[in-house]
Amino acid sequence: PPRASARRGRIGRTCVAAMAASESSGYGALQLVTLNMEEKKVEVNEDALGRLEKKLKEVGAQKVAIISVMGAFRTGKSFVLDLFLRHLRYERKAEHGAAARPSSAAPARGSNEEFPLPAWITDAGATIEGGGNSADDGFRYKGGMDHCTEGIWVWSEPFMRTVRGESVALLLMDTQGAWDGNMTKEQSATIFGLTALISSKQIYNINMQIQEDKVENLAYFMRFAQAALRKALQATKGGSKSDIEKPFQSLDFLVRDWANFEDEWSIEQCRQQMAVHLDRHLNPEHLVERGTVEGLRQMFAHIGCFCLPHPGLRIARSAWTGRASDLDRDFLRFVDEYMHDVFSQGLNPKTVLGSELTTVSFPLVLRTFVEAFHHATPSTMSFTQAMTAATVLLAKEQAMVGYSRQMDDAAAKAPRGREPSEFEAYHSDVVEQVRRGFTEVTILGSDATRAEAWASIENDLRMLQRRYAEDNLRRLEQVLNAFANITLLGIWLFLLDRASDWTCDWWSETCCSMSRVMCAAYVPIFVYVAYHVYRLVEARGRLAAVSASAELWKEMLRLTGVYGDLLFALRASDLPALARRAAACLLDGGPGRAHAPAPGLAGA
User: What is the average per-residue pLDDT within 126-133?
Assistant: First the structure.
């Protein structure tokens, strides 16, 4: 009815406004992708993506893992994500010793003992994040009949995880409800397609049980995705064919309000029933119409199923504010089990046809995928173009990162620089290694696509090579700068000795003694520096030695200014500490301390 429709619109707008307001405070839900179904447009929210990029840079992770929850509207997707948030926050506190820990093991299911509230539920307070009208610490959810989430949202707080020894930034993603009667199958397929492309683990949230229509909902996207990949596979050479044949990573059917667990069953028996339920609906051998199921099996590397009992009647009411104690204890027991499955066993970095997504490439790939669905109507052509562009982007990034890493390592091993011929030879070796690695990367497309991608990479490598060559040349020119401090000391001692010759050596035995001490100091200094200049002449010629000597004089002039400013700002009480620091600088100084004054002087 019109009145109900208007009410849904008002509540939907209120929910979106509440989530948007949270963007302005520290962490919050960010609407990465907007889906305007009336105008049939899908667009990236650049402001939200910029905020997420900043957060990813702050945590310093290299890889990204994304867990998304999708399904029909009003099935509790945001509520599940808020439970994920609470669990992840508890784990992070526990790592730093700040979280409460359970005092004893939970009683086994079927023992007639009540399951206690888990520590990760109670530690963060009595109310689940995201509940209530003013909640801004979780994904916004609401009891009742009206939907809340519009578009595709991500929580701006990356959670650091260690996966296979690597630091990974985990992101949680919430999506607009699909297959709700107000959306066409193309629009619902847009949501499923985008989340499948973006996520490393996609959770399909459904009510009561897996049914044929729930699986068939995925068919539209699966069919054009299969057609696109089948066609691309014929043209693709290089890389791993298995990466193309199974382009998506993990799909979990999360069955809500499951009512078939017997009270006396153990968790193991309940898991056996989950496996039987999955096999009944996702095993092609048990089905008459098996096309969609076979497509799913071919497209996803892993498909699983987990069933949750009903969380309790109170939470279905629109007035429920998120009080944790209202949740059914058996529901919490299974949620606790599922947390272990999701975050400990089934978490992997996001990959696109075998290439892992990094914090740098994630925004670029997201824009590419969203562009493919720009008109909210996915097609074989748009999907193929998106996957091709994404694989090319990742191949380029992998090549650039590999080249830069090896060149940085080479620079660290030769702080004084390498001879130009040696540098060019090393550069050629690194480029050849990058080229061999590129041939093993999966790129969706023909030989022409791969050749074009390598030509672009070669051009980028030449630009990087020029930067490293300039840096190497600077190192060669500044090879004598490491002796700036000690040479400056020798010059000052020489000048003081000459001054004493004119002022006091002719009448003071003390001055004569000081002159002899200074001479004994600066002569070895000059001999030491002259020896290194001689070696430089022998190795690289007079022109290089003259250039390096000029750089040495520039560095000494700079240090003279630094020390002069220090003297003007010096107080008498600072002299003892300054003397100790200067002595430490001279004792520690040498070729490895090229461009900085003593540690105590640098701050001045």
Answer: 60
Q: Which residues pair with 159 in a beta bridge?
A: 170
Residues 35 and 375: their CA atoms lie apart, in Å, by 9
Per-residue pLDDT, averaged over 535-543, amounts to 80
**d(C-alpha 125, C-alpha 109), whole Å:** 26
pLDDT tens across 84-102, in order? 888 888 888 877 544 444 4
**3-state secondary structure at position 69:** strand
pTM over 0.85: no
Helix (H, G, I), strand (E, B) or coil at 557: helix
Would you mind telling me the total number of residues written for the chain in this entry? Answer: 604
**Quick check: 366 and 218 in contact, CB under 8 A?**
no
The region, left, alpha or beta by phi > 0 then psi within -120 to 50, assigned to residue 60 is: left
Which of 301, 244, 196 shows the shortest CA–CA distance to 442? Answer: 244
- Contacts of residue 160, defined as CB under 8 A and 6 or more positions apart, other chains included, come to 59, 61, 92, 167, 168, 169, 170
* pLDDT reported for residue 432: 92
Other C-beta atoms lying within 10 Å of the C-beta of residue 344: 10
Region 241-269: mean pLDDT is: 83
- Count the helices and strands in the chain (H runs, E runs): 20, 11
| Rounded distance between C-alpha atoms, residue 585 and residue 604, angstroms | 15
Q: Report how far residue 526's alpha carbon sits from residue 529's, in angstroms, rounded to the nearest whole number.
A: 5
Residue 178 DSSP label: B
Banded pLDDT at 242 (limits 50, 70, 90): low
Beta carbons within 10 angstroms of residue 306's beta carbon = 20
Terminal Cα distance for the chain, rounded: 75
| Alpha helix stretches (DSSP H) within 288-379 | 291-299, 329-340, 361-372
Q: What is the pLDDT of residue 308?
A: 92
User: pLDDT for 551-597, tens place per residue?
Assistant: 888 888 888 888 888 778 777 677 677 677 766 665 554 434 443 33
